[in-house]
Structure formats: C-alpha cells, structure tokens
Design brief:
The structure is a homodimer. By secondary structure, chain A is of the alpha+beta class. Chain A contains four helices and 15 strands. Chain A has one domain (about 1-250): 4-Layer Sandwich (Glutamine Phosphoribosylpyrophosphate, subunit 1, domain 1), CATH 3.60.20. The interface of A and B includes residues 36, 82, 83, 112 and 118 of A.
Chain lengths: ~250, ~250
C-alpha cells in the first residue's frame, strides 16, 4: 500500500491474511512492514498468517502508514524459518529499505560477500542484498535523486528478471517500487470513494465514511483483494513506482 | 536475557513493562528484540510499554529465544518517534545486531557519513552505527572470532564511555554484551530453581516447574526485576559478555 495520507491497512490485511493458509496455500510464514515517519515497524512470523497471533494484532491495532509491504510465503528456496521470512529490512543512506519477492530466481547465484549480506538462505534476501550492494557501488556516499534511483532499480530489475521469476515490492519509505514478472495488479482509491467488498472474507467497508476527498490510496497485490473494484494488471516486465498513491512507469 | 536453551521472557517482561509508564517514568516508547535462530523479531512502539497493544501481545505470546534485548525509553536526545525507539537493528557479516542504550552521550559528535548511518536523531543509534563502522573498518570482510570481537567492543566502549553515560546491551544472536556506566545488574537462574517474585507486579512463578536441570538463564536489568533473588551489580566501567547464560568479564 502507498498513500498520500497515513492510512491503516486493516481492511486489506483482513483479506490478505486469509490467503496465508486459508483461502490460499502461502502458509510458510508471513510478514508486514509499516513505515512511520522515518521509522519502520517490521513484524515477521514463521507461523501462517491465518493462525498467527501477530496477524491478529495487526488486524486489531490500526497502524497508520504511507507505505506498507506485506508478504505471505510459500517456501521454494530456504526452509521455513524466521530468517527466511519476508519482508527483509536493511539501512542505506540513513533510511530503512524494505523488500518482498514472489517467485523463484532459478539462475541467480547469491554471493555471501560485500557490504550487505543475507542472514537467511532465500534467493529473495540475497537478491535484495545484491540490489543494495549495486546501489552503494553506483552512488557511494550520496543518496541519489528519485529519478536516478528509479533508473538504477530499473536496470537491476532487468538483470534479475533474466534469472527467474521476479515479482517484487521495494520501499525506502518515500517511494514504493513494484516490479511485475508474472502477476501483479493494483487499484487506486480516491474520491468519490465507494463501498468495497473483500474477495477472501465476507466483509465490506464504505470508504466514503472513513476518508477525506483529498485522500489517495494505492493497493498493489498479486491477485486483486476486492471483487467490486477495477484493478489494473501491471504488464510483465513493467516496473512502477508509487508515490503519494500515484503510479508512474519507470524506464 | 541470555540463555542456554530457548526461553520465553513473559515473566520478566511483565515486570519490566510496568516500568514503562506505571512503576517508573520511562514512557517515551519501548521495544524488544528476540533472536530466533539467525532471524530476529523486533517490536518497537512509540507508545508507552504500559499501554502498548504490542506489549500485550508479547505478554500473551510466549516467544522462545536465546537472546532478548528490551528497552523502555525516557527521551533525552531526539523526540518521541518510532525511528528513535530502541532497540536498533542492523546487519553485519550476515548477522543481525541489536543495540539498546541507557544514558546520554553528552560529548559524542555523531557523524552522518559512513556505511552505517542513523535513521533517527538519537545519540544512541548514532553510537551503535559508530560501533558497526569501527568493526567493519577493523575486520573488513571477515567476521572476527569471539575473542577478537570482545576486544574490539571493549576498546570502543572505553572510548564512548569517556563521552557520557553509556550503559548498553548489544547482541549478535550468539553473544550478549552488557556495559555498565552507572547502573546495571544481573541474575543467573539455574538448578535448583526456586519460586521468584516480581518487584513491579503482584506476580510470582515457580521456575522449578517450568525448567529442566540443565537450563541456565541470565537476566540483566538496570534495576533488579525480582525481590527474592541475589542480583549482582556490574561494576561501573565493566563490560560483560553473556553466552549460554554465563557471564564473563571482557578485557
């Protein structure tokens, strides 16, 4: 989720949580990261989202955030363990960076050297470290502009996409990048807000009652989370960057 | 807490939580980090521990860990905000490192350059980054032995202790370092286990009923958490390293 005003994700998370072991089989751990100012709350759990006490907390404690990344895992590389649970977090240029990946990078050879190194054994965390090492090598001590950063992420995504299936979400708290390899779609909610219905739970919400006319909220998901909204499919190979709830194609 | 078998911290945390706004005035946010294998659960909240829904979760969800670091904040440097909430986490040599500080480093000049940089505005996070930068500069790509690491932390603690009040806890998931500047004490629980009573809540527990004879658990705190155990004061200037529930003086 990426927004122009701090927004809670309770509604979307309620549907998403069901896919972690109930309406879908991604039951090998789950996690969620909320940026809050420069800070970040990161909750990871190796239990399935559907059964996790931490997921219950997230549903009952409305945390307001401009950028949220959540992930439910179906283990392909690396055993079910906390250190292999997405999203992953690192610090670069005095900002936290959050990364989650869906797919398998069959032909990616992870390195265990360099400034950023994986703690666990997933191809996903190794790929995230590879990105941060590449950014650090390219820009050194100076944080790049949004445009330069976008260009670098675009180049890196092209390189990695050649090595396997690489749907990913990446945020530094200001922008949220979404790369589609096989399947990813989004919806932008803005005025006039309507009543919206979850696909995975018998729940709806009237967003016009809980928003102001200036609010804009983008939600990105592998499979649409609601049944009565127009979701846009991101094209395979496309990298979008979301800022203030607005998507823009990169590169 | 540092243990030789994964142990839950619910009992100690129950007393500790009260100090975050109820029996003590450290009400400017709180946090706790649990190592679980190589992974780490980090919960930070800018609300007071006494009132935090996340603290309620920690009390009701027994997470078993070999190394736990918890902190309640009384803001001295940096406003109350999530990014200023201890403990702080970074990755170095493919391990997570966790750090919490009690005191103020009046004469420490934080730098915003280098590999590790603070995200928030506390002297504490800046000091943590300073340590990791120093370790990286000294040992480079190769993780040092426990003895070499201890020596480096000892040297760094001496340098920082000259700049203010520097009680800290530091863990890489294998060792837990405790440096006392003004006030820090510990207890080691091992067989024969006894019935123990919290100082801050009307709660006791019979550890003989929930342990095996081989268990060893060290708990370190600014002020003893229990009333009927022998806590050992760490001497000002002393650095201890705990491993498998056993303290050892460093340097």
């Amino acid at each position: 989720m990426n927004c122009n005003v701090p927004t809670d994700i309770v509604f979307s998370f309620t549907g998403f949580q069901q896919r972690g072991g109930r309406t879908d089989d991604h039951a090998d751990g789950w996690g969620i990261a909320f940026f809050e100012g420069r800070g970040c709350r990161l909750y990871v759990d190796s239990a399935s989202a559907a059964d996790s006490p931490v997921a219950q907390l997230v549903r009952s404690y409305p945390i307001r955030s401009l950028n949220v990344i959540a992930h439910i895992r179906k283990a392909t590389r690396g055993p079910v363990a906390l250190e292999n649970t997405h999203p992953f977090m690192r610090e670069l240029w005095g900002r936290y960076w959050i990364f989650a990946h869906n797919g398998t990078l069959d032909r990616f050879e992870a390195r265990s050297q360099g400034r950023f190194r994986p703690v666990g054994s997933t191809d996903s965390e190794a790929a995230f470290c590879d990105l941060l090492n590449a950014l650090w090598q390219r820009f050194g001590d100076t944080e790049p502009s949004g445009a330069d950063l976008g260009g670098a992420v675009r180049e890196w995504a092209n390189r990695m996409a050649a090595l396997g299936s690489f749907n990913f979400l990446l945020s530094n708290g200001a922008q949220l990048f979404s790369h589609c390899a096989t399947r990813l779609s989004y919806v932008v909610r803005q005025a006039p807000f309507t009543r919206v219905r979850l696909a995975d739970a018998d729940i709806d919400v009237d967003f016009s009652a809980v928003t102001t006319p200036a609010d804009r909220v983008a939600v990105i998901a592998t499979v649409p989370l609601t049944t009565n909204e127009e979701w846009t499919s991101i094209e395979p190979g496309q990298l979008l960057v979301f800022e203030d709830g607005e998507p823009r194609v990169v590169g």
